[in-house]
Amino acid sequence: MVKLIGSKKIRTAVLISGTGSNLINLIKFSHSKKSPIKIQLVISSNKKAKGINYAKKYRIRNKTFYYGKNINPEKSILKELILNKIDLICLAGFMKILSPNFIKRFKGKILNIHPSLLPKYKGLNTHDRVIKNKEVYSGCTVHLVNSKLDSGKIILQKKVKIRKNDNQLTLKARILKLEHSLYPKAIVKLFGNP
Ligand code: GRF
């Protein structure tokens, strides 16, 4: 695990593919005194990701890497991470699967936020499946990334009760709010305050 040395903040990259509400939340958190991380780099797998605008607004170095049918830009992503001396990767709605080699290179240094109470409901469309299965609770989880999908060590979870009239969208919105408080808490749990 990365250690916080003195007051030096951990050089962090956030990887996104979409809206970036977790990204903006992490950016704001990183500006607070109690944050052990500094966001140096934002990487997107999608040039249309709205989240890139947050990186631009806050003048954070940002790069988009094109994933195609037979194109996996991981090598270039790795180069960029190394160039920027990145010590921690926070996945925040990054919709690409990282290869075991990539994960090995950053072992114990990749965090993800997932919108379910893992180990239940790994993968996509969690809210839809949770509602269809008439679950009583759902929630979100921050976990370390290992080579199995959504299966690494759980750092923190937050649970929410599903309401009778909840649909995918209402549940998603409620859980997203929880995500925004959970991700910073998980980071502080792991690395402490500066
Ligand atoms: C979040 O629900 C997160 O848990 C999942 O992808 C979504 C990303 O949302 N991994 P945003 O782009 O951070 O708004």
What does this structure look like?
By secondary structure, the protein is an alpha/beta fold. It contains six helices and seven strands. It has helices at 21-30, 51-57, 74-83, 100-105, 126-132, 168-191, and strands at 10-16, 37-44, 61-64, 88-91, 110-114, 137-144, 154-161. A seven-stranded mixed β-sheet has the order 3-2-1-4-5-6-7, with helices on one face. Helix 2 links the parallel strand 2 (37-44) and strand 3. It is globular and about 50 Å long. The structure holds 5-O-phosphono-beta-D-ribofuranosylamine. The site of 5-O-phosphono-beta-D-ribofuranosylamine (GRF) has 16 residues, from helix 1, strand 5 and helix 6.
Structural class: alpha/beta
**SSE topology string:** EHEHEHEHEHEEH
What is the total tally of β strands? 7
Strand sequence of the main sheet, in spatial order? 3-2-1-4-5-6-7
What is the rounded Rg?
A: 16 Å
* Ligand kinds: 5-O-phosphono-beta-D-ribofuranosylamine
Report the end-to-end length measured between terminal Cα atoms: 16 Å
Describe the largest sheet: 7 strands, mixed
Count the helices. How many? 6
Helix content: 25-40%
Note the beta-strand portion. Answer: 15-25%
Topology, please?
Blueprint: E1 10-16, H1 21-30, E2 37-44, H2 51-57, E3 61-64, H3 74-83, E4 88-91, H4 100-105, E5 110-114, H5 126-132, E6 137-144, E7 154-161, H6 168-191
Parallel strand pairs: 1-2, 1-4, 2-3, 4-5
Antiparallel strand pairs: 5-6, 6-7
Helix pairs in contact: 1-6
Bound molecules: 5-O-phosphono-beta-D-ribofuranosylamine.
5-O-phosphono-beta-D-ribofuranosylamine binds next to helix 1, strand 5 and helix 6.
